[in-house]
């Protein structure tokens, strides 16, 4: 049963190849547990979600539930989580959901306009491989 | 009694008809106009920023063209044209995120309405001032006030900190 004790986990950037301004928030992993134990680290969080979306026979409900829950958190998901989600969409033959996911993370970034281009840059190989067009490419913004 | 009931029924069907589903509208949307939208126990489509993937797709009853497109979706997406991708998106989602975020100009209507009514009230007050209220009492006329002021100075009203304090009795003027 997933724990809803998640607090603010500021978005942790990594250095990009093009040398974007490196605004590194310190990764304050603050996911608490009601049963004690140490808070989950960022890597564990990411790994958990990647595993979730990488399930080979994921069904549409699980994709929707996972995505809606992930968007409910106070963070922008890492590219590797999004890649796993996009591949899950491919397995489910659902292009509309793939595009919706991209829109949702752009919206999630809020005023931080540099996050979305970074994500697209990281996801570019996956987008090209699967043939997913971004909403901007289709003129839907 | 009977005629009024019949009248009521006639009114009801005539009034509610545009709001209820017609078959042509249903074919176009397949979401909004079906009885489902009035039944909260069945999963609904909704446009929400915090719920990117809704429980059901926007268009549920696909015609043959749309079904063909869905079949094509099962193959490589690189083979889909831009229009097809947009069509697929619109089948599942009614509004894009920018469309959801777009505000309306309703505030202009509201503000305009408020000002109209304020203006109307102002008109009423003005009319009332002219046609309803009588003359102002004579004790507020300039000459009366002059004499009254002089009397107050002579009486030394509030000589310490108030009225007469401000009158210079030597120079016979206000300080």
How would you sum up this structure, described in words?
The complex is a heterodimer of chains A (141) and B (175). With 141 residues, chain A is mainly alpha-helical. Chain A has a domain at 42-138: Alpha Horseshoe (Serine Threonine Protein Phosphatase 5, Tetratricopeptide repeat), CATH 1.25.40.40. In chain A, 49% of the residues lie in helices and 0% in strands. Chain A starts with 41 loop residues before the first helix and ends in an 11-residue tail after the last helix. Residues 1-29 of chain A have low confidence and may be disordered. With 175 residues, chain B is mainly alpha-helical. Chain B has three domains: 41-103, Orthogonal Bundle (Cytochrome C Oxidase, Chain D), CATH 1.10.442; 104-134; 138-174, no CATH class. Chain B has seven helices and two strands, in the order αααααααββ. A two-stranded antiparallel ribbon of chain B has the order 1-2. In chain B, strand 1 and strand 2 form a beta hairpin. The radius of gyration of chain B is 37 Å and the shape is rod-shaped. Chain B starts with a helix and ends with a strand. Residues 16-30 of chain B have low confidence and may be disordered. At the A-B interface, helix 2 and helix 4 of A face helix 4 and helix 5 of B.
């Amino acid at each position: 049963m997933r724990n809803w004790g998640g607090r603010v986990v500021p978005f942790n950037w990594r250095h990009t190849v093009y040398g974007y301004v490196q605004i590194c928030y310190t990764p304050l992993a603050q996911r608490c547990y009601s049963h004690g134990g140490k808070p989950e680290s960022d890597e564990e969080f990411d790994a958990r979600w990647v595993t979730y979306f990488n399930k080979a026979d994921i069904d549409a409900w699980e994709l929707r539930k996972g995505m809606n829950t992930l968007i409910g958190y106070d963070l922008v998901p890492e590219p590797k989580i999004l890649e796993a989600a996009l591949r899950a969409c491919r397995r489910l033959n659902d292009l509309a959901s793939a595009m919706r996911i991209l829109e949702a993370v752009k919206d999630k970034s809020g005023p931080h306009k540099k996050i979305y281009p970074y994500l697209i840059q990281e996801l570019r190989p996956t987008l090209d491989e699967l043939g997913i067009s971004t909403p901007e490419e289709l003129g839907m913004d | 009694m009977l005629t009024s009931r019949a009248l009521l029924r006639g009114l009801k069907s005539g009034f509610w008809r545009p709001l209820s589903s017609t078959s042509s509208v249903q074919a176009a949307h397949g979401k909004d106009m079906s009885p489902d939208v009035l039944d909260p126990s069945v999963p609904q489509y909704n446009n929400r920023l915090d719920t990117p993937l809704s429980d059901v797709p926007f268009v549920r009853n696909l015609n043959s063209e749309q079904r063909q497109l869905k079949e094509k979706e099962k193959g490589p997406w690189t083979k889909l044209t831009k229009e097809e991708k947009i069509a697929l998106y619109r089948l599942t989602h009614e509004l894009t995120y920018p469309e959801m975020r777009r505000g309306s100009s309703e505030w202009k209507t509201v503000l305009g309405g408020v000002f109209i009514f304020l203006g109307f009230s102002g008109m009423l007050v003005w009319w009332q001032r002219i046609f309803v209220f009588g003359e102002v009492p004579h004790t507020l006329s300039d000459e009366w006030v002059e004499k009254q002021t002089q009397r107050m100075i002579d009486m030394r009203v509030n000589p310490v900190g108030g009225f007469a304090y401000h009158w210079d009795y030597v120079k016979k003027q206000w300080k």
